[in-house]
Amino acid sequence: MSVSRLRAAVAVGACGLMLLLSPTLCAAQQTAAKTIAVLDFDLIDDQQPWAPASVEYGRLAAIRLQLEDALAAEGMYRVVDVGPASAMIDNYRSRMQLHACNGCELDIARTLHADRVLVGWVQKVSNLILNINIRIEDAGSGQVLLVRSVDLRGNTDETWRRGMAYLVRRLGEVDAASR
Domain 33-178 has what CATH class? Predict the structure, then answer.
């Protein structure tokens, strides 16, 4: 067998081995990933008296889903369903915003047996200036592990999607042990 054929055979064998091992490696990565409860985003509407929020409420739900999908797809976290704690969440939300509830987010995460909890909020400074903020906390200790923010110029579905995509990229840059 010639050297070039031997190299080709080794390359084909290596590719086959990678294909066989990739589901195992992906499963191991998913198993190692921490669980996270992603709570609904809050809206801080500084423009309420002049230009009350309307479409922004739908965008809050959209960026939450975008975030959950990206966290799972990137293997950063295993996202837990917050549905089983919906009564608790509704109770807290009826009294305060979750990003500023003084520890209620940790109660929710512990109820869901999640390792981490993510709270998020969007501040509408004006119709053209907004910012998306996220905070990730360790459910056991309450320690804040990560805080990120992105400013938006323009209040459209596209700017919100791009802003969230930027935040997800920034999360991916952080060492897994630090988030």
Answer: alpha beta
